Amino acid sequence: MNELDPSIKSLFIIAIVILLVFVGFIIMVVLVYNKRQLIQHQENQIKEAEFQNQLLQKELERQKAIQLERERISQDMHDDLGAGISAIKLQAEFLTYKISNEAYKEDIEAIIATSEDMNLAMREILWSLNSKNDTIGNFIDYTSTYVERFLDKTPIQTLLLSEIIEEHTNLAVTARRNLFLVVKEAVHNVYKHSQAKTIQVHFKQVGTEFTIQIIDDGIGITKANKTGNGLTNMALRMENIKGKFEIVPSVKGTYIEIKYRLTTT
């Protein structure tokens, strides 16, 4: 086989070199492009992280402002409204000693009773406004104390049970207030309508599900009052916080179960 002409061989070598240079150039362009894309992607991630951080910072500032406003309203109510209610009660009690007319005394006693109810209602509002109370543990303590005090002078025996995994789990103010009012209404219904001898309030937490069971051994709920006694209102309160309200079938008495899905932070 004859050897290639030297000029052809030189052209062939030059062509290979040019091809290698071209390939090398393409590879370099691809590497540079990929590097720029990577840098651009990292810059976009940094910008997105900064943007999310700014949003988080604004949300934290907003939450802090709300918390400060709640504390201000709470303090103002305690100082002004609380003092005013206490003053009305004291003045009414003083009048009972000065007035001999029994008819007037009854009216004054009604004013005293109303002021006491207003004072209790104000304390409930102050409790719900205080951000330091936004935990399951505090909710259970406050609710349990209320139930015990409310039924203390009645013949109804109270049993309070708690199976809570983490008492410091956050419970938002809206949920906390609605849950309390549902329990309060249920306990009032037991006192007024059930003829029960015992009531059991059971707090349970399974994962992110918070459950409260109110069980009594009374006469139960009849068909006539199944939509009364505040049951509709309790169901609406749970619906407002995306919870569940259920009257569980029971052989004796009334078994109410409310469930609320806790938000994880």
Could you report the average pLDDT, rounded to the nearest whole number? Answer: 82
Indicate the percent of residues in helices: 55-70%
Q: At CATH's second level, what is the architecture of the largest domain?
A: 2-Layer Sandwich
Query: Assembly state here?
Result: single chain
Distance between the termini: 82 Å
The tally of domains stands at 2
Low-confidence stretches: none
EC number: 2.7.13.3
Catalytic activity: ATP + protein L-histidine = ADP + protein N-phospho-L-histidine
Domain Histidine kinase/HSP90-like ATPase: 174-264
InterPro entries: HATPase_C_sf (IPR036890), HATPase_dom (IPR003594), Sensor_HK_TwoCompSys (IPR050482), Sig_transdc_His_kin_sub3_dim/P (IPR011712)
Question: Could you please describe the fold and organization of this structure?
Answer:
The protein has about 260 residues and is α+β, with helices and mostly antiparallel strands. The chain has two domains: about 1-130; about 135-265, Heat Shock Protein 90 (2-Layer Sandwich), CATH 3.30.565.10. It has helices at about 5-100, 100-130, 135-150, 175-195, 230-240, and strands at about 155-165, 200-205, 210-215, 245-250, 255-260. Strand 1 (about 155-165), helix 4 and strand 2 (about 200-205) form a beta-alpha-beta unit.
